[in-house]
Q: What sequence folds into this?
């Protein structure tokens, strides 16, 4: 990021005269990390807008399907057909089938839109990773959002929609009603998942904006500190005044983004984070004012320019600290909210299990025909578990936590409670018995409590027990790549400023210290991993980082040093990716076959054999027709066979 490539093409003739031509020089500039992060932010906001539009379209489509269901169930349609003298249509009207077809096609379009958005986010994630402009939080947000979009409509759902579309031409009224019922259920599930994806997109966009603005504030504080030092030395007041003016404009834009972010946080109910961001905004506005004063004083040759620039640097540093405090506070608030939700889930799941145990005891003293009276008690337990699951799901989405195991246990418990209700309604002789079904429900509720308790313990231990050593090393390498990117970015910022030599040496010493810390961390990792580990070049990377630190400490920042820094950065990224690939095992595993039912093979019909229901005219007949008429005939038979035998309306 931030690199520049100049290229041209030279063409040499093979003629002995050796003529040659050269194209004009072109310049390819890679955007700096700040712009790439902003691009990711814009793409997230676009995804959120598209999800909001998709949600409104899904809501309208669901309403249309409900209206179709009401129309299909209305008795007036069949009665009016009889009164008009028409024969009642066993297969349903052509209009009804076309309405079902349109509803299915609309649902397919919604699923396709979700899949297209998921693929775009995947491309964005890959491009950011290749450029090294991503961070672990953004990477996690994009991955979670992709998973949520992928769950909206996988290949199985698309295949089912396509199957219904192919069958709609032959559906009678009862089958069309069944297709509408199935579509309504799919739409309800689709909208629930869509709202979850939309909530994740909103959270990801807000958090990314918070991180971006905090990073920009830190970069502004660093640049202002260096510029203040240069203004105190009074080496070139005119140039420093222009640099100060440009920096004040950038800071003013950052203050505007802080104001917009604070309003968004207030609307979202994040009052504490709003207060911290608003404090950062005020500090940034104070920094802008001091920057403008420093620029004016530098142009006038005043000695106070350095003092005002120092004041601006301090105000900008205060803004950066307030932004990081806001980011940390939001993370802690959501983590504490999720921890409280896990505690509540553990406690209330156990309470529901005890309540179901009381219902089970009440079963023992009742006659079989009296057990149905306990149905309401079991339904109340089920309702309590459903509310508890929704509450935990909301807390986990806000915290960006993974609760799939708890959700799976809760789903199993809900199904078990549903079976218990069904058994109670079935009367004497039901299988399994009410007592056995209730016992299974109690066990399932206890499993929910245990899984929530395990998640709580893992969270309190910092997740150390949940990750493998390879995962931990991958995270360490990602962090080191991020640190190396910051060193590279700092060098790219300092070079265009043309700082005085004493100050430039001071900046180089600071960068050398940061580079030395990266070298030390890499050396420690290489010692832990050993020579036979999956990352045999960790030691070589540590030696390169050490050599770069020595070059920076010596005041050398030539283009070759910058290229070596970039190569080290990409090697760190590649090392992290190699570990991630090793986590995805391609080893094949065998499983013993379970019980299965042997069924006889049915005869294949004409459709399965690929035969045409209506034979095409022979070639001689077609050749006697004019070209236009021949095309009409062919198109007619294609449509006729494509309908599946003319199962549509009257012919």
A:
């Amino acid at each position: 990021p931030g690199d520049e490539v100049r290229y041209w093409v030279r063409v040499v003739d093979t003629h002995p005269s050796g003529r040659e031509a050269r194209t004009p020089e072109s310049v390819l500039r890679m955007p700096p990390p700040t712009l790439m992060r902003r691009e990711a932010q814009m793409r997230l906001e676009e995804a959120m807008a598209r999800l909001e539009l998709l949600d409104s379209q899904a809501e309208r489509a669901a309403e249309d399907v409900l209206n179709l269901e009401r129309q299909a169930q209305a008795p007036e349609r069949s009665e009016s057909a009889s009164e008009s003298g028409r024969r009642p249509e066993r297969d349903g009207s052509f209009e009804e089938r076309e309405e079902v077809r349109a509803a299915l096609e609309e649902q397919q379009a919604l699923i396709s839109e979700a899949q297209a958005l998921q693929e775009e986010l995947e491309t964005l994630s890959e491009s950011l990773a290749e450029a090294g402009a991503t961070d672990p939080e953004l990477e996690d947000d994009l991955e979670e959002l992709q998973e949520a979009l992928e769950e909206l409509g996988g290949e199985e759902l698309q295949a089912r929609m396509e199957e219904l579309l192919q069958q709609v031409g032959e559906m009678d009224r009862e089958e069309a009603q069944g297709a509408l019922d199935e579509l309504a259920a799919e739409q309800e599930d689709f909208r629930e998942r869509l709202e979850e994806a939309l909530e994740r997109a909103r959270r990801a966009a807000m958090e990314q904006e918070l991180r971006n603005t905090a990073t920009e504030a830190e970069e502004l504080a660093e640049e202002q500190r260096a510029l203040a030092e240069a203004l105190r030395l009074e080496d070139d007041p005119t140039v420093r005044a222009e640099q100060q003016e440009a920096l004040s404009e950038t800071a003013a834009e950052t203050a505007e983004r802080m104001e917009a972010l604070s309003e968004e946080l207030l609307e979202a109910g994040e009052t504490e984070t709003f207060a911290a961001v608003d404090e950062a905004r005020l500090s940034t506005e104070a920094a802008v004012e001091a920057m403008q004063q420093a620029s004016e004083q530098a142009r006038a040759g005043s000695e106070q320019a350095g003092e005002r620039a120092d004041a601006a640097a301090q105000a900008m540093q205060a803004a950066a600290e307030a932004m990081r405090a806001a980011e940390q506070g939001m993370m802690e608030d959501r983590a504490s909210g999720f921890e409280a939700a896990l505690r509540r889930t553990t406690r209330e799941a156990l309470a529901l299990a005890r309540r179901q145990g009381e219902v089970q005891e009440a079963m023992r003293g009742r006659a079989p025909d009296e057990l149905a009276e306990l149905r309401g008690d079991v339904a109340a337990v089920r309702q309590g578990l459903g509310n508890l699951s929704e509450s935990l799901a909301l807390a986990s989405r806000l915290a960006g936590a993974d609760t799939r195991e708890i959700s799976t246990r809760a789903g199993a418990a809900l199904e078990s409670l549903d079976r218990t209700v069904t058994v109670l309604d079935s009367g004497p002789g039901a299988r399994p018995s009410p007592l056995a079904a209730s016992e299974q429900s109690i066990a399932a509720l206890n499993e929910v409590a245990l899984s929530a308790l395990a998640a709580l313990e893992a969270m309190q231990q910092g997740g150390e027990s949940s990750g493998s050593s390879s995962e931990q090393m991958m995270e360490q390498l990602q962090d080191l790549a991020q640190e190396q990117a910051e060193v590279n970015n700092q060098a790219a910022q300092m070079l265009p400023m043309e700082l005085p030599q004493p100050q430039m040496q001071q900046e180089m010493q600071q960068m050398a210290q940061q580079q030395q810390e990266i070298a030390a961390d890499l050396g420690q990792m290489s010692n832990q991993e050993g020579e036979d580990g999956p990352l045999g070049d960790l030691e070589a990377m540590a030696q390169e980082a050490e050599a770069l630190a020595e070059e920076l400490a010596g005041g050398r920042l030539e283009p070759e040093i910058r290229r070596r820094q970039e190569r080290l950065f990409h090697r760190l990224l590649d090392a992290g990716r190699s570990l991630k690939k090793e986590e995805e095992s391609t080893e094949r595993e065998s499983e013993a076959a379970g019980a299965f039912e042997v069924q006889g093979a049915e005869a294949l019909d004409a459709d399965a054999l690929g035969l045409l229901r209506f034979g095409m005219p022979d070639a001689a007949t077609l050749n006697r027709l004019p070209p236009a008429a021949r095309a009409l005939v062919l198109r007619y038979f294609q449509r006729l066979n494509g309908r599946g035998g003319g199962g549509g309306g009257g012919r």
User: Anything to note?
Assistant: The two ends are 66 Å apart (CA to CA). The mean pLDDT is 77. Strands lie at 4-7, 10-12, 20-22, 26-29.
